[in-house]
UniProtKB/TrEMBL annotation:
Domain of life: Bacteria
Protein name: DUF3196 domain-containing protein
SUPFAM superfamilies on file: Hypothetical protein MPN330, TPR-like
Record-linked Gene3D superfamilies: Tetratricopeptide repeat domain (1.25.40.10)
Amino acid sequence: MKENSNNTNKRKVILFPGTVDRLFNEAKHLAETFHYKEANELFEQALLLGEGDELSLSVFAYSLYEVKNFERAKQICEELLAIGPSMYFEVMELYLTICMQLRQFKQVEKIIESLFDEELIPEHEVEKFERLKNLNAHIAENQESQLQSPPLADIEENFDIIASEFLKLSVQEQLMLINELPEMNIRPYITEIKAVIESENVHPFIQSLLLILLVEQEVNLDLNIAKFNMIREINPAELPLPTKMPQYEEIAAIITETLLQEPSTLEFVQQLMAKHAIVLYPFEWTIFRSEDVALSYIEFVKSMFGETVEINGEIVEFLQNIEKISDLQE
């Protein structure tokens, strides 16, 4: 008697106990150690086999956001919001950020309005979300009224309007606005950008990102940069990018040579150092010797992995401070 072909095709996959949990745990670990691509692949595998808990889905959403897979990140956030997570407001903030990355400004405006109507916004966040709602309402209106304009016209006008109020925005709002700038000619707004960069109230990471835009477009301009108790006069047209700075290249070479037999640690150290270089830019680690900085990065990363190492307290404290700043948490 022939076996029914439908039954053959529908045989169930037998899983060992704990397989799904193990996949989710491995995926979370990968995301927490900045291996987002690999983490996302494991998360997708795990979700094919079972349902994710609130924590797993939250980490998955952030991991997708980090690799700019905004459409999928939005889907995961919607699944989370549908089950009413305990960290509802944090998930909603991520969801709104993703919608802005997708340029769904009208949707963001409507969601924030509903949050206000339902009194779901914490009192200390009201002013921030009021600004965010107005920002999205203005951009959405501009999108509708300038459909026949060149593709970047609405972005340029919005930046011109918002520039004077730029420093009043949250760091995340500033970052989202800056993300729109690389594809446009920023020269008409040099005065505003210079004022932001030279402001004593600007976040060091935001300051560096704006400076990098000027360097990439070879803007000939004198700037006075102050951060981390250091002051320097520079011209973006004559400045190398962060990873081409002299001490960066020197430290990177030492790290690469030291960790040739430890590729995973090397990759993590390189990512960390590149991120810190942006925060420090246009300065470097010049208050320390390059050899000491290279060794401290290696020790710092190994200590994060739970290894017992001898640590140069002064330099590692400096690196920890840079790492905290680079997280862009207010």
